[in-house]
Write a structure and sequence with these properties.
The chain is α+β, with helices and mostly antiparallel strands and 373 residues long. It has one domain: Aminopeptidase (3-Layer(aba) Sandwich), CATH 3.40.630. It has 14 helices and 14 strands. Strand 4 and strand 5 (126-128) form a beta hairpin. Helix 8 packs antiparallel against helix 9 (245-265). The longest helix is centred in the last third of the chain and has 24 residues, at 349-372.
Length: 373
């Protein structure tokens, strides 16, 4: 019933003149912004309020987006779960940021092996950051899992590491993610080097015996290719087969997000009301977010005002010596493979400096130019 309603509301036949091009461009930019906000479109679908972008012009006094020093930040967490299970380790920890006035999108990835201190029953005062979500939600205690507490706890840890405030969050369920990509007809990615992962975990066989039956072999060739939902998920989750392991995976996860954005931007997608309706349905199954309808309305206004949305700048907190931010300490010391800041276990000052330089580089350069004059 909801899909029928969506088809009736998203009436693209009305765009038939120069005005058609303007509105369609506005719609495309709006969808890109929604992607940056992390699935806020789900809220529109859920409440049955989806209409054409002309709906925005009728809104009165839209709310302002929560900004930190002129930027909107959103935490994106990818869960290794499917269906209605919203607890689990976060295989994807990524912060998206953009300027409401300039665009300037930025993506920052935190590897799952990042060691942090946290008060968690089984963590003994420390744990990898990918367990923060589960820890905060009570997954390691006997109580019922609380997703809001889980997100807030994980978000606080990421804010501590990066030195920025992050008002918004999106939690993505991997099973629903596959549905999103398939709804889009696949996504396009380009790979510089081929790789083979001989130990990709098979869902549902985590405890199977013999042990080797828990894994499968996945291969990706070099070059540009179109990935289905299943292949895109494997592309984003694979940890083995490349020299930089989890760091390369973080970069591929950023590639996947850009691939989804690029596919949504294609004009043909918006000329198919069924695909648009199916995308909202997929978002409903895959995403949980705290973006409100009022904030969504404001986001659409911003998207319509931007001339273009540039390719995002990206940062992965890896152990690259040229970056000088992270190191891999002796495994025996921590009982597992972890990475910590070069400045010390909980000294994030270098990371804070790098993040601020990335987010505010244009303003810093402009200020320096003004002083020089």
């Amino acid at each position: 019933m909801q899909k029928t309603y969506l088809r009736r509301q998203v009436n693209f036949d009305q765009f038939k003149t120069i005005r058609r091009k303007k509105r369609l461009r506005t719609l495309i930019l709006s969808f890109v912004l929604l992607l940056v906000l992390g699935g806020a479109a789900y809220g529109v679908y859920r409440t049955g309020l989806l209409q054409t972008v002309s709906f925005v012009a009728r809104l009165i006094n839209p709310v302002q987006l929560k900004e930190t020093d002129g930027r909107v930040n959103v935490l994106i967490l990818g869960l290794d779960t499917r269906g209605e299970n919203w607890s689990g380790l976060t295989d994807t920890i990524l912060v998206g940021s953009f300027s409401p006035t300039e665009g300037d999108p930025v993506m920052i990835s935190l590897p799952r092996d990042f060691w942090v201190k946290m008060d968690c029953p089984i963590a003994l005062g420390a744990k990898k950051i990918n367990a923060a979500y589960n820890c905060g939600g009570g997954a390691y205690s006997s109580g019922k899992f609380d997703q809001e507490k889980a997100v807030n706890f994980a978000k606080a840890k990421v804010e501590e590491v990066l030195g920025i405030q992050i008002p918004y969050y999106t939690v993505v369920n991997f099973g629903g993610f596959k549905e999103i990509v398939d709804t889009l007809g696949g996504i396009n990615v380009c790979l510089e080097e081929a790789f083979t992962d001989n130990a990709y975990p098979i869902p549902g066989r985590e405890n199977a015996l013999p042990v080797y039956t828990r894994y499968e072999v996945v291969k990706f060739s070099a070059g540009c290719q179109t990935l289905s939902g299943d292949r895109a998920l494997k592309f984003a989750r694979s940890r083995h087969g490349t020299s930089n392991g989890d760091f390369d995976r973080a970069r591929r996860q950023q590639q996947v997000i850009v691939g989804v954005k690029d596919k949504i931007l294609t004009l043909d997608f918006f000329l198919n009301p069924k695909k648009v309706a199916d995308l909202f349905s997929a978002l409903k199954n895959a995403v949980r977010t705290n973006v409100t309808l009022g904030e969504l309305q404001r986001g659409m206004d911003i998207a319509a005002s931007l001339k273009e949305i540039s390719a995002p700048e990206s940062l992965v907190l890896d152990t690259n010596p040229d970056l000088g931010l992270m190191i891999h300490p002796p495994t025996a010391r921590y009982g597992a493979y972890v990475i910590i800041p070069t400045a010390g276990e909980t000294n994030y000052i270098k990371i804070h400096q790098k993040v601020r330089a990335l987010l505010y580089a244009p303003k810093i350069q402009e200020a320096q130019g003004d002083k020089a004059e």
